[in-house]
């Protein structure tokens, strides 16, 4: 029994001769192969393969007639590389097994190739916009601020706030009114009853030093000395910032020292224009803003006592939203009825407080509280002062 070996694409297909013999007996089942045009049969060729198959006789298969190739067709999509494609033929024809080699994947040379391609602009990227201003012919006068204010008032679209009252508080060192610039005298600090001092005016005084908590010590001592010292720039009393050069008697207000171009240093020293170094210095201080918490150390009990002792002097004492106006007084015959175990009710006491309105939920008004005498007993009166309404007076014999 001999086998026929057909080699196609490194694949071997073996057909048994016995099978062919059986197929030849059944004429109806398998038709005969077409005879080749060659008259003489080629001699037998013996090939030996180095594998586990025994030595076989290989016969050349008859050559088929060449057929005209059909027109080109679209590319065929092959299955994945790891699966072998099987081409099934009709039972009458020769069976051929085709095995495809896996295709190598393309390796990107860099990470930039993995990124999606950038969008390409079509047309213009930028467009120019031209503005044309048309000025009317003739004399045209733009409206002023007063005309605009009147027009807005007629429309009723805006509300102009009330003008801020002028600050008449005066610094007892430099004698300037109101809060100063942040990079200058800075804000006013309360020293005593109706006594105010600028933060930097007190801080740059020779005797004053600052604690770790932010309290300024010896401000009153510097004030007493400044009342006897005259400024070299403005020739007024109250100068407390002196030159740090030994045996130099030049002394200035803090604001006058800035105007006279004195040099300030980071270690809280100052040199007058006569003794300051030429040019710039590493330790020179050119910015005087103070944003930390700073206050003047004082005795609050003594300050409250001075309020009572000064009597009818014009002053303001405020605690939060409570503004104190007058203490009042008690006569000896009123002592029994005008006090309780926790409080005194002096006749003539007057204070005001800013609190929420009784009429509107989102508005504040002023409540004026006072104590009067009626039939030998205290009478507590509250006067409600609210803009746009008449004053409402509430009174009772108890503070509640």
Automatic annotation (TrEMBL):
Ranges where the PHD-type domain occurs: 168-276
Keywords (A to Z) from UniProt: Chromatin regulator, Metal-binding, Methyltransferase, Nucleus, Repeat, S-adenosyl-L-methionine, Transcription, Transcription regulation, Transferase, Zinc, Zinc-finger
SMART domains noted in UniProt: FYRN
Catalytic reaction equation(s): L-lysyl(4)-[histone H3] + S-adenosyl-L-methionine = N(6)-methyl-L-lysyl(4)-[histone H3] + S-adenosyl-L-homocysteine + H(+)
Organism: Pampusana beccarii (Western bronze ground-dove)
GO cellular component entries: MLL3/4 complex
Biological processes per GO annotation: methylation; positive regulation of transcription by RNA polymerase II
InterPro entries named in the record: EPHD, FYrich_N, Znf_RING/FYVE/PHD
Top-level taxon in the UniProt lineage: Eukaryota
EC number: 2.1.1.364
Name the UniProt record assigns to this protein: [histone H3]-lysine(4) N-methyltransferase
Record has Iron as a keyword: no
Main localization (coarse): nucleus
Localization of this protein: Nucleus
Keyword Endoplasmic reticulum: no
GO molecular function annotation: histone H3K4 monomethyltransferase activity; transcription coactivator activity; zinc ion binding
